[in-house]
Known about the structure:
Blueprint: H1 2-18, H2 24-28, H3 31-35, H4 39-52, H5 59-77, H6 83-90, E1 97-106, E2 115-119, E3 124-131, E4 138-146, E5 160-172, E6 180-193
Helix pairs in contact: 4-5, 5-6
Amino acid sequence: MKFFLTALILTSVFFKSSAQIITYDNFKSLIPHLQKEDWKTAFEESSKLIKSTEKDTSDFKAIVVYINILSAAGMVTKKEMTFKQLEKAILNFKGQKIIMSAHPITIKDGALNQTKFSVSDTTNEAFTAATNDKGTNILCFEKFLFKEKITLDEFSEKSFVRCGGILEKIETNPNKSVVWILRLTVKEAFARKTN
């Protein structure tokens, strides 16, 4: 009986911890660190959340994965992490669901912190270049390959859109320069208007 009770307690603890999900409040707690560009704290806190919620497949988890990647790239720009450490920290996210920050839509090429759609008979994708506040470092070039054909009529210029999907490819700057840190390619992408 004692063994059975111990096994039951351990089983319930296991199921409780593996069923834990990231909440809105968990996600929201990371925002002040990002706003201050306290990349190290954002990275450490998002890493803890990710480790404690391995089975979580929610959108909040996908956003926290992006925060973790973005903050690691930010750490590289401040020399708080090397490119080698960056690769070790983020390459395991390949194949996982990810949702990026919301950005305004633009029609201009080369715009920073804005999303540009490229939709034609042969292309169905969008691009974003996420930078630090000063725009001196591009943390992530983001490319989205949409599964469904995007209808541009749904998105007006300057409305905000949040893109996500499955993280297919992660590339670090081969020159190890901090002008740009990462290129992310997302397949089976979607775009959601946020305003």
